[in-house]
Amino acid sequence: MAAVGDPAEALGQAIAEESAGEWLEPADPSSTNDLYQLRSCLRHLVLSYKHLPSPAALLDGQLNLRYKNQAFGKLLHLYNYPASQSFFNVFGRNLPPEQASHIYQALHSDETGFSWNGDIRHKTHDLVTLITRVKMVPFFRMAERVEEPLAWTVFLDDITADLNNGLRQTFIGLLAASKIKDNDTGKHIERVNLYSKALSETIFREKLDPSIDADFVDEIGFLAAMHDVGKIGTPDDILNKQGPLSEAEWVLMREHTINGAFILSSHPNRMATQIAQSHHERWDGTGYPYRLEGEMIPLPARIVAVADVYDALRMRRSYKAPFSHETASQIIIADSGKQFDPSLVIIFKRIHQQFDRIFNENAD
Fold first, then answer.
1. Which pick of 59, 100, 131, 342 has the fewest CB atoms within 10 Å?
2. pLDDT digits (tens, 9 = 90+) for 67-123
3. Cα 49 from Cα 196, distance rounded (Å)
4. Is the same domain home to 202 and 328?
């Protein structure tokens, strides 16, 4: 193998030598000492990244992926990224044009140190979105910096759990407040989460609706619990009244849907406001607050409507005795096309035993 002829080729040869498990001395060390040392340095970079548990890669001067460690390659495979060398061709589908432009400019600007730090979201239909903190650090030839970097190292750090947990903790506080207001509900919201997730998982697994992806299933498994958060603003004497409500009291009670949508308006996923606002709409258009009909009702709210009513039927409340699973199921099925989306009732009929199991395993 010939000695490296220019700095750009040093990266490729260093990677090739490391991959092959060989290390070739230059034919004439005195004439290629700089390039030899450069290649040696790059080879040691490759070796140090090889066993990192987190994704790491090397880009050449044209921003082509020249080396990927095992974790980086696994990420590309899991999220179905294309087999391309260009960094922007690989990640392009998940980079908004303005972000891609910003990255390119930062990597070619002395003001930013030819580097970029930021977040990239990796999304595909079948996997929950992965959020990575990305650091792109320039590599200059030897100790003397030239106008443009020879290469960049790229590090990806998974921050998904940290971001999601921080966001969810904020809204868990709201859930706790709403439970204090309506303290006769037991584990109702936990069960509604589980019912909603069970319906969504079936639709997702059997590819019955393209709008339901892995993120949808994951999010509704938490956000369904927020459906009644607007009751924070409902007067206590109405929430805890023994017996039926008057028409004037029902007017105030129905406002919890609008209040909930307002409270959750800061949540980054619009599913939160859709559920809070529309889970009392009915398929036939006779629900509240806006008398939406059919598919005008957002799908997350239609799913939560089935879950919420089923659990309410099964529960013992101060004003009603609990229904059996068989009776509750019959009521849900009988209201297909009236209160509930018929396609969801069909799925409910298939997995109704799962609803019964969830109720029994999470009893108050």
1. 342
2. 899 999 999 999 999 988 899 999 999 999 999 999 999 999 999 999 999 999 999
3. 42
4. yes
Instruction: Say which of 231, 241, 338, 349 is annotated catalytic.
Output: 231
Q: 343 and 225, same structural domain?
A: yes
Is the domain of 267 the same as that of 326? yes
Enter the pTM of the model.
0.86
Same domain for 185 and 298? yes
In DSSP terms, 120 is beta-bridged to: 132
Residues 207 and 324 reside in one and the same domain: yes
Which residues contact residue 35 at a Cβ distance below 8 angstroms, ignoring those fewer than 6 apart? Answer: 3, 4, 5, 6, 7, 10, 26
CA dist., res. 101 & res. 103, Å (int): 5
Q: 203 and 314 share a domain? A: yes
**Which has the closest alpha carbon to 237: 251, 253, 226?**
253
| H, E, C per residue of 9-55 | HHHHHHHHHHHHCCCCCCCCCCCCHHHHHHHHHHHHHHHHHHCCCCC
Domain around 73:
53-158
Overall domain count for the chain: 3
* Residue at a domain's end among 102, 132, 158: 158
| CATH number of residue 152's parent domain | 3.30.450.20
Amino acid at 307: A
Query: Do 44 and 57 fall into the same domain?
Result: no
Instruction: Select from 158, 186, 202 the last residue of a domain.
Output: 158
Is 68 annotated as catalytic?
no
Are the C-beta atoms of 281 and 305 separated by less than 8 Å? yes
Q: What is the dihedral of CA 14, 19, 21, 24, to 10 degrees?
A: -30
335 and 245 fall within a common domain = yes
| CA dist., res. 268 & res. 81, Å (int) | 26
| 352 backbone φψ class: left, alpha, beta (φ>0; ψ -120 to 50) | alpha
State pLDDT tens for residues 278-321.
999 999 999 999 999 999 999 999 999 999 999 999 998 777 89
Longest CA–CA separation in the chain, Å: 97
Phi, psi of 184 (to 5 degrees): -100, 15
